[in-house]
Design a protein that fits this description.
The structure is a single chain. This protein is mainly α. The protein has 15 helices and two strands. The radius of gyration is 19 Å and the shape is globular. The N and C termini lie close together (7 Å).
Length: 346
């Protein structure tokens, strides 16, 4: 059977809900928390928040197997091409369309969802893929390629969707967005790669992935929960005053995650890919890097902005949807794929 989630990942939705609830309570007890955070800021970014955001991304970058890139690139070119096609030619515009449909009168919330849509997943997708018995090597290479492409393409897509298409409805400091991407994605990528190289040289590849990586992985979740807690402390009054706002943001997110996953899954079947490759394509296409979206939203628009609020709702919707889709994949693998086999992990 496929590997089970550990207690932290299995109850991620619960931890996020608890962090949101704690943030709402914290905001009521200490309403001056925003001023306190602003007192420790550089170039418009709160240093405590920056520490939490960096903590999210570094463990992810350190556990990507960069040595797998050349081999998998040669053996799964078509599958990787389809995956990247969904990530960079379908997902950004589908998310923009859904966000405009539901949130065109809420430009800040629309901005947050656009940021989610232009950040393909580089973290939890490995968990969903593992649970569904997908090709982890191919998924890892797509994660690595997406990590690099996000550094190169995030800002151009932000400019196209937030400035060109939105016009004057949303004002984005694209220079700040660029710096944020480089700091919160480029720097963790460099440090993660350096950590991996050093780990391979000192303890070996097997010990690095079996011992070191599991020790640092919970740091990413702690960073996410800390960021969520602070953001909801700052936005608590707004959320409590208009709880339907969460539902308004959740609707396009739900349609996006389920819709693009289903499309990628069916396309993979139609193209004759194996189940392992097909389900990997589906989860890579349907998941998003909400860590980066949160980082950019906080740095570019402020920790108390509607854009930041929309991005933090992302994982709350994505986690239960992806867990449900794991069950869908396992239930339909023999109907849609001729092999239908899954990779088991003892």
């Amino acid at each position: 059977m496929t590997r089970d989630l550990d207690v932290l990942d299995r109850f991620l939705t619960l931890w996020i809900l608890l962090a949101m609830a704690a943030g709402l309570l914290f905001g009521r007890v200490l309403p001056g928390v925003a001023e306190a955070l602003d007192a420790f800021s550089v170039a418009g970014t709160s240093l405590p928040i920056a520490a939490g955001l960096f903590a999210m991304l570094y463990p992810i970058m350190a556990r990507v197997d960069y040595r797998a890139v050349p081999k998998v690139s040669r053996t799964a070119r078509r599958e990787i091409g389809v995956t990247l096609g969904f990530n960079w030619t379908v997902a950004p515009f589908l998310m923009y369309g859904l966000a405009w449909l539901f949130l065109r009168n809420h430009p800040g919330l629309l901005t947050g969802l656009v940021l989610v849509g232009i950040a393909p997943c580089i973290a939890m997708v490995l968990v969903w893929n593992d649970l569904a018995g997908g090709n982890q090597e191919m998924c890892a290479i797509c994660v690595g390629v997406n990590s690099v492409l996000q550094v190169l393409l995030f800002v151009p897509y932000a400019f196209l969707l937030l400035t060109v298409l939105q016009g004057s409805a949303v004002e984005a400091d694209l220079a700040l967005v660029a710096r944020t991407v480089l700091v919160f994605l480029g720097l963790p990528l460099v440090l993660g790669y350096g950590t991996q190289r050093a780990g391979f040289a000192t303890v070996g590849r097997e010990a690095y992935f079996s011992r070191f990586v599991p020790r640092i992985s919970p740091v990413g979740l702690m960073g996410l929960l800390f960021t969520v807690l602070v953001m909801f402390a700052l936005k608590g009054e707004h959320v409590l005053a208009d709880p339907l706002l969460v539902g308004l943001v959740a609707a396009p997110l739900l349609l996006f995650f389920a819709g693009i996953w289903t499309a990628a899954y069916l396309v993979s079947s139609a193209l004759g890919f194996s189940y392992r490759e097909g389900v990997s394509i589906a989860f890579t296409a349907g998941s998003n890097n909400f860590e980066l979206a949160i980082a950019v939203a906080v740095a570019a628009f402020g920790v108390a902005s509607d854009a930041a609020l929309a991005t933090v709702i992302g994982p709350l919707i994505e986690v239960p949807v992806m867990l449900a889709l794991v069950k869908v994949a396992l239930a339909t693998r023999y109907r849609l794929f001729t092999d239908g086999e899954v990779c088991t992990v003892e």
